[in-house]
Amino acid sequence: MVAPLVLIPGFMADFRIFLPQIRQLSPEYSIQIAPTARGETIAAIAKYTIERAPERFALAGTGLGGIVAMEMLALAPRRVERLMLINTSCQLELPNEAAAREPQIVGARSGRLKDVMREMIPPDALAPGTERFDILNVLEEMALDLGPEEFVRQSRAMQRRFDQQATLRRSKTPTLVVCGEYDTIYPVRRHEFMAELMPNAALEIIQDAGHVPTLEQPDRMTDLVRDWLHVPL
């Protein structure tokens, strides 16, 4: 029997980041979307999600959601049956990266959240093609729906996140590390590093996708999730 699937959206995103997968997989599988707007820290979001998750579950997170997923793995490794980390990072935020968030926070609070999101996820973070502008519009809509205060909370959580390299090294959980080939925010080399850290991990690079492969290559990602759910443990 396939374990329930818990999906964790990325930075300033909601269920819409996984909408193609939810539409195709929900008739077949039990799917739970973990809200990231539930805490001031990555650890708090992870704890909130664990408390509401099934006893055993498959776990997939993208971006910030992947960072939360790694914290969940650290907190409750025996409950995570299998793990998928999508376009994310296991490392703590460097001082220059943390400092760069301060003007973004000021901009969001002053009513420029849409402009800030455009700066954070530029077109070249996605695969080339006119479709990427439609996807950027979806990302902006999700961010505007969540609002500036949530932007501040998630930014602070990212600034203060823990390094998870030791968690990945210790983990025996079957893991699939996924990255879009064009991602400039969390490039392929970071995912190669994560996959090499883990004793039971594989790496999948999604062609013709960047930072948001769930929307850029929805059918490919849906097939990947379905296959991953059925890999023997």
Describe this structure in words.
The chain has helices spanning 19-25, 42-52, 64-75, 95-109, 113-120, 131-146, 148-159, 165-170, 188-197, 213-216, 218-229; strands at residues 5-8, 31-33, 57-62, 80-86, 175-180, 201-206. The termini are close together. The protein has one domain: 3-Layer(aba) Sandwich (Rossmann fold), CATH 3.40.50. The chain has a 6-stranded parallel β-sheet, sandwiched between helices. Helix 2 (42-52) packs across helix 3, helix 4 (95-109) packs antiparallel against helix 7 and helix 5 packs across helix 6. It has 233 residues and is of the alpha/beta class. It has 11 helices and 6 strands. Strand 5, helix 9 (188-197) and strand 6 (201-206) form a beta-alpha-beta unit.
Write a concise synopsis of the structure shown.
With 233 residues, this protein is α/β, with parallel strands linked by helices.
Globally, the shape reads: globular
CATH topology: Rossmann fold
State which percent range the strand residues make up.
Answer: 5-15%
How many separate helices? 11
* CATH 2nd-level architecture: 3-Layer(aba) Sandwich
Secondary structure topology:
Elements: E1 5-8, H1 19-25, E2 31-33, H2 42-52, E3 57-62, H3 64-75, E4 80-86, H4 95-109, H5 113-120, H6 131-146, H7 148-159, H8 165-170, E5 175-180, H9 188-197, E6 201-206, H10 213-216, H11 218-229
Parallel strand pairs: 1-2, 1-3, 3-4, 4-5, 5-6
Helix pairs in contact: 1-11, 2-3, 4-5, 4-7, 5-6
